[in-house]
Specification:
With 164 residues, this protein is mainly alpha-helical. It contains seven helices and two strands, in the order αββαααααα. The longest helix has 27 residues. The two termini are 13 Å apart.
Length: 164
Amino acid sequence: MKTKKLTISALLIAIGALAGQLIYIPIGASKCFPVQHTINVLSAVLLGPWYGVINAFCISLLRNFMGTGSLMAFPGSMVGALLAGQMYRLTKNNYITAFGEIFGTAILGGFLAVPIAVFIMGNAVGAFAYVIPFLISTMGGSIIALLILQSNTFVSIAKKIVEE
């Protein structure tokens, strides 16, 4: 493992764990928590799929330890990060990467959250119970990540640091 990648990964984990509950966007009766998903897309582009999954796991774990997260954070964020990372690895396209994050988190992660809710947490929920809430947050985070990635200055500096 490269020290620079580990350092960037640690910074993204710290930002995600600390800002994950502080930054939100009210959308109707719901709240969009975009930080985790922004970090997933940025990790996919800058660090690769496996760093993205590790970042998502660490952020979810830290948020659970701090009492600001739930078990539902694990399936959505980790699957979204993995799919986003694989999409970027295969296509090098930021928009497809963001779509991978959205599909992985909202659809796949939303369905994977149901057995966790039913068997581990004891909550009876429908198959689509987590798809819409996950979709709201992951779309917000993916859009923010795309806006950040549109900044040529950010991308050139970040990639230069990672690749050296």
